[in-house]
């Protein structure tokens, strides 16, 4: 089949590494591209929009992924636009202290959790991708795959061919939709995968312009100031503020849909037009923050940096089939209460890159085995995050009586030693790229071992055999 986009497909049995098509130029796709660039694996990224425009909201990266940034030589640059996050403070809507929660223990763990606005991270990752390896305005319509390769059809009429297709195209993945449609016709799709994701919360998010440190003294703090303000029993709202570099504040207003009125649900779930945007923000301008009112922050935030985001949770069972594989939100949607969504997407990219590196020689069978191995290594690790993110969301954003009691117990009865022990346990899983020098050990905790590279083991065996034969 001819293609209007030059194909790098190897097709068939070859010692050459497969050519990888990555659908999605978001966080997961760009990170995978950076990893494949270092691994020497051929790839092309296809982004459906005319430009990569990340949400202007806050994100959190934990010690579970920072060693991989260090391997890629990106850690110092990452830290230049991030702030260390060691403490979360919770208030009532009257700014009465509810409690505080330590977010990290850097001496034992070796890394701090960090907070940052999304745009500079995307800019950094995008900037490391050679220009000819990323194509914009390429919306995937469908794809086909067989023993010889995979073909992707785009809305503009063009076609791309390769050996592996990676769906890194987010919660509303076109790759997943195309794959599941085919599997459903063949009777191979579990019923749970065709069910809609659960929408428990909806959020308005934004990042201010640079603010005057004289008016906002916390801008001068080296660590991020994180405030969670939980509305009283008459409102389903929780609002959160984080300070980030460049004297900016990221804000997030979360609504618990099960506690919202019919009017609030209708307003928040309607189309996200400019007038709806302003109407929703005007209704909550008077809410108090530690910096004044939310209205003060809204006024300092350009309209184009305000987004509406659904907080969904769903763990799909089908992550791969033949030459197609899903990563990030395309495979699993976690509530963002623990920051696990972004971290797990990046961890997916690391493990998938390792498995792609091990496809030697490139055959249809070896390609399928590699994608099966990726899921085998990642599914359990992701599944374990679900109850944690659910409970954390209840703790941070919940307004039911049970959730208010939970907050009181956690902040007033649970010993800090228990919380610290859980932080250490949660930080032990930190996968790295097998094909790059390992990041230096930080902290005192024992890191969970990861599966060794078959490719590297084979090369080492060959080297030892050649040395012995001399």
Automatic annotation (TrEMBL):
Signal peptide annotation: none
- Protein's UniProt keywords contain Protein biosynthesis: no
Q: Where is the FAD-binding domain?
A: 19-379
Q: Which InterPro entries match?
A: FAD-bd (IPR002938), FAD/NAD-bd_sf (IPR036188), FAD_mOase_fung (IPR050562)
Q: Where is this region: Disordered?
A: 450-470
What's the short name of a Pfam family annotated to this entry? FAD_binding_3
What keywords is this UniProt entry annotated with?
FAD, Flavoprotein, Oxidoreductase
GO MF: FAD binding; monooxygenase activity
PANTHER family in UniProt = FAD-BINDING DOMAIN-CONTAINING PROTEIN-RELATED (PTHR47356:SF2), FAD-DEPENDENT MONOOXYGENASE ASQG-RELATED (PTHR47356)
Belongs to which family? Belongs to the paxM FAD-dependent monooxygenase family.
Name assigned to this protein: FAD-binding domain-containing protein
Q: Identify the species of origin.
A: Linnemannia gamsii
């Amino acid at each position: 089949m001819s293609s209007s986009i030059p194909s790098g497909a190897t097709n068939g049995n070859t010692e050459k590494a497969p050519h990888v098509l990555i659908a999605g130029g978001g966080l997961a796709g760009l990170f995978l591209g950076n990893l494949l660039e270092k691994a020497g694996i051929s790839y092309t990224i296809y982004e459906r929009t005319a430009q990569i425009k990340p949400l202007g909201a806050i994100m959190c990266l934990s010690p579970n992924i920072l060693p991989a940034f260090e391997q890629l030589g990106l850690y110092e640059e990452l830290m230049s636009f991030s702030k260390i996050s060691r403490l979360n403070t919770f208030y009532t809507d009257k700014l009465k202290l509810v409690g505080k929660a330590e977010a990290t223990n850097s001496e034992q763990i070796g890394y701090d959790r960090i907070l940052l606005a999304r745009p500079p991270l995307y800019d950094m990752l995008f900037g490391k991708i050679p220009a000819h390896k990323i194509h914009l305005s390429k919306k995937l319509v469908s794809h086909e795959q067989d023993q010889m390769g995979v073909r992707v059809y785009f809305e503009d009429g063009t076609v791309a061919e390769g050996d592996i297709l990676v769906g890194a195209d987010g919660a509303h993945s076109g790759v997943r939709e195309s794959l599941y449609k085919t599997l459903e016709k063949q009777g191979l799709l579990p019923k749970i995968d065709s069910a809609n994701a659960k929408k428990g919360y909806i959020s308005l998010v934004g990042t201010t312009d640079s603010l005057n440190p004289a008016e906002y003294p916390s801008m001068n703090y080296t660590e991020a100031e994180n405030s969670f303000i939980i509305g009283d029993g008459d409102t389903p709202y929780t609002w959160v503020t984080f300070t980030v570099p460049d004297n900016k504040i990221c804000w997030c207003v979360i609504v618990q849909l099960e506690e919202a009125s019919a009017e609030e649900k209708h307003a928040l779930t309607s189309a996200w037009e400019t007038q709806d945007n302003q109407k929703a923000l005007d209704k909550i301008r008077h809410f108090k923050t530690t910096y004044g009112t939310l209205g003060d922050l809204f006024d300092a935030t350009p309209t184009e940096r305000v987004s509406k985001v659904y907080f969904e949770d769903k763990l799909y069972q089908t992550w791969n089939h033949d030459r197609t594989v899903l990563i990030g939100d395309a495979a699993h949607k976690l509530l963002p209460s623990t920051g696990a969504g972004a971290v797990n997407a990046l961890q997916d990219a690391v493990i998938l890159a390792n498995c792609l590196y091990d496809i030697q020689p490139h055959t249809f069978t070896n390609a399928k085995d590699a994608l099966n191995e990726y899921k085998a290594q990642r599914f359990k690790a992701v599944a374990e995050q679900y109850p944690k993110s659910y409970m954390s969301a209840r703790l941070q954003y919940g307004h039911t009586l049970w959730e208010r009691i939970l907050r009181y117990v956690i902040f007033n009865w649970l010993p800090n030693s228990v919380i610290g022990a859980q932080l250490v346990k949660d930080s032990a899983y930190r996968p790295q790229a097998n094909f790059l020098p390992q990041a230096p050990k930080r902290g005192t905790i024992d890191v969970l071992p990861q599966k060794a590279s078959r490719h590297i083991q084979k090369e080492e065996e060959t080297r030892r055999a050649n040395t012995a034969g001399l």
